[in-house]
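From the pipeline queue, job 12 of 40. The input is one protein chain; the requested action is below.

Action: predict structure.
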Amino acid sequence: MKIKIFCNFCGKELDTDLLDGKKRQICPGCKAVYYENPLPVASVILSNRDREVLLVKRAREPFQGMWCFPIGFAETGESIEDAALRELEEETSLTGKIVQLVDVGSHLNHFYGELLIITFEAERVAGVEMAGDDASECRYFPIMNLPKLAFDSQERAIQKYRELKRDLWSIRDSFETFVGGALRDKIAYPGSLLSDELIMAVENNSKKIIRLWLDDIMTNPSTGSYHAFDRKELFERAMSIIGDFKAWLKGEKGENEFKSFYVNLGNKRREDRVLLEDLISSLSLLKKHIWMFTYSFGVWEKAVDIYRMFELGERLVYFFDKAAYYAVTGYTRAARKQGKA
């Protein structure tokens, strides 16, 4: 770091004195104080949809030949955000826009002294990646497998960036798996979706959920046909349904087995003289109690928690709609047989 010797205003040689508890350079003639402030540096993280980060290889010292994010000093008359976008364009030929602040950190440089490095996330707007200015090369690297970065401040920044993106990436992965499963008429196996954690909670608390459901259908006007039913028999049926729900999600039960169970359920309820609308309502109420239990299971402050509940709701709808369809099929078949008898 270069030490200032003469005053900019009167040309006298500077002295050192204690001011505000710190040694500072002061002009003995005009009393000007020369504060030593960190130099502002702008750094940019730009990633693509494949979760790769754009890095540049430094063409000059310091750290020549090492990789880093586009980085450079802010200049007089420009904002730190403008400096970040200018460095991005100069070193990679891309124009971009700032998405968010990622990190602010200090770095001690043997030549420039104390630096204040501000790292932003930027989004690509236009251009083709091409190294320029202080960069000899630029290309994308997997964000979880980056080379050693030239600056420690950028190593810290990328860790914060991963944390910032973790929930968003989890949601995106789960959503893509969910949609892919729906297109194949399978809502994925446990371990691949964010809502799997809630499915485990349903299984572990199935008895509590079913007791709440039984209290409901034994008194609810929409399930009057069930009010005189044997509670134990309904409890066992509901346990089977929750077991089916998990087995179906795991792929342990095929479509034929699934269909057979609910067709037989509909047939049995017809024989028991349960009204069809009461049968459908009983299934709907079980779905409601499963969802309401999981809703009360946690605090929904983060986007990932809200998405997890949305995803569970969609899986419940998918399962119970199919169950209701097959139950109605069994019920109406039994009705036709009784009508012919």
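Job complete. The chain has a mean pLDDT of 90.
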